[in-house]
Design goal:
Elements (H helix, E strand, L loop, with lengths): L1 H16 L5 H16 L17 H23 L4 H23 L3 H10 L1 H11 L5 H30 L14 H18 L8 H8 L2 H25 L9 H19 L4 H22 L2 H32 L10 H4 L1 H14 L6 H16 L3 H24 L14 H19 L6
GO molecular function, one term: NADH dehydrogenase (ubiquinone) activity
Subcellular location: Mitochondrion membrane
Keywords: Electron transport, Membrane, Mitochondrion, NAD, Respiratory chain, Translocase, Transmembrane, Transmembrane helix, Transport, Ubiquinone
């Protein structure tokens, strides 16, 4: 694990000193080499410095796989920038990857907290320095305020746990007898930061803003990895804190499931394509929150499967939205009609990705949602009402995206550029791992 960490660190000076002609070929090749090297981490082995297990390994591998894909997706937009800004951009996403991988490999709660919060800085730089709209500073402020205000209770809880156990706690179940109110406050303080990162409905307002204003690499890393840090943190903290009755999580369960339905309904009235995809992430993460809080083997397996599959699917959707934006210079759905007539191959990618988004069998999304639904039904049959509504509306807005962007009369002229091989490669590298994992799901379950 340490060799991979040092290899990522070495990529930062490499991007700053490479010749201009070699900047993208060399850095992308280096990142793909890192992604291939990280495949060995699917067989977790214990390490005294860094730690990996069946929960952190798939998420770490997902983050490494998406690093070169972010570079490929940003290449066209970045090529118009001055050379120094291109170098800084590559160094920033590499630094963000370093912090993310350290969060997943952290052995102590304190290190995990520090790295979890450190991801804020490169993400904030990405949104505010390379965002495309005038509102990017507002989006950055929202992101920073939500993250910092919810992470302060987590810091207090971390210090309290370290003082209680006299050890940097993470994989040790606390058995110290604590007052019931102390235990409840500990849970609330620890969970708030992760729930805001997921985000749960009610603490979600930073996400659509951040997605809309961020560059394509920022949107990909936000949807695919940073939201999963919240889920990973929740699973880890549940292994550490004293046991609580699941009934105490009832308000969060209701909020997450009802929030998933409300986020789906919000998707139906969105006019901005990126904002629509961002709200769809909120609804999927609502299911993951509910599954993690049940704390059964099936529900945790379902949460892991849905987190991994959503990482690939949402990232692919943002790449497709960026493909349209680069040609039409707008993300308003009503202005991006009739692309099937001009970019027929891109229509195939849209169809595949939308089918995965609505969890069509035999994809990994279907496996994850099926496990989560069976767990929730076993916990409380009434949850089927909200889950059924959520699934129905997800299918509706996915069909709405596909029909809005692909069908109807086009507003583009015949001089529109065809899709490049780079964009087809990008989509193939998103879809093919998801199909391969669907054939061997025990890698991540």
């Amino acid at each position: 694990m340490m060799k991979i960490t040092f290899t990522i660190m070495a990529l930062i000076p490499t991007t700053l000193i490479l010749k201009p002609s070699l900047l993208y070929p060399a850095s992308t090749s280096y990142m793909f080499l890192l992604a291939l090297l990280s495949l060995t981490l699917l067989e977790p082995s214990s390490n005294t410095i860094m730690n990996l297990d069946s929960i952190s390994s798939p998420l770490l591998l997902l983050s490494f796989w998406l690093l070169p894909l972010m570079t490929i997706a940003s290449q066209r937009a970045m090529s118009k920038e001055p050379l120094q800004r291109q170098r800084m951009f590559l160094a920033t996403i590499t630094l963000l990857q370093l912090f993310i991988s350290m969060t997943f490999m952290a052995y102590s709660l304190t290190l995990m907290y520090i790295m979890f919060e450190a991801t804020l800085i490169p993400t904030l730089i990405l949104i505010t320095r390379w965002g495309q709209q005038a509102e990017r500073l507002t989006a950055g402020t929202y992101f920073m305020l939500y993250t910092l205000s919810t992470s302060l209770p987590l810091l207090m809880a971390t210090i309290f746990l370290n003082n209680m156990t006299m050890t940097p706690t993470l994989f040790i179940q606390m058995n110290n007898p604590l007052n019931q109110w102390t235990t409840l406050l500990l849970w609330l303080a620890s969970m708030t930061a992760f729930l805001a990162k997921m985000p749960i409905y009610g603490l979600h307002l930073w996400l659509p803003k951040a997605h809309v204003e961020a560059p394509i690499a920022g949107s990909m890393i936000l949807a695919a990895i940073l939201l999963k840090l919240g889920g990973y943190g929740m699973i880890r903290i549940m292994q550490t804190l004293p046991m609580l009755k699941t009934d105490l999580f009832l308000p969060f369960m209701v909020l997450s499931l009802w929030g998933a339905v409300l986020a789906n309904l919000t998707c139906l009235q969105q006019t901005d394509l990126k904002s629509l995809i961002a709200y769809s992430s909120i609804s999927h993460m609502g299911l993951v929150i509910a599954a993690i809080m049940i704390q059964t083997q099936w529900s945790l397996s379902g949460a892991m499967a849905l987190m991994i599959s959503h990482g690939f699917t949402s990232s692919a959707l943002f790449c497709l939205a960026n493909t349209i934006y680069e040609r039409t210079h707008t993300r308003i759905l009503i202005l991006t009609r009739g692309l099937h007539n001009i970019l027929p191959m891109a229509t195939t990618w849209w169809l595949l990705t939308n089918l995965m988004n609505i969890a069509t069998p035999p994809t990994m999304n279907f496996t994850g949602e099926l496990l989560i639904m069976s767990s929730l039904f076993n916990w409380c049959p009434t949850t089927m009402i909200m889950l059924g509504l959520s699934v129905l509306i997800t299918a509706s807005y996915s069909l709405h995206i596909f029909l809005s962007t692909q069908m109807g009369p086009t507003s583009l002229n015949s001089m529109t550029q065809p899709t490049h091989s780079r964009e087809h490669l990008l989509m193939a590298l998103h879809i093919s791992p998801l199909i391969l994992i669907s054939m061997k799901p025990e890698l991540i379950l």
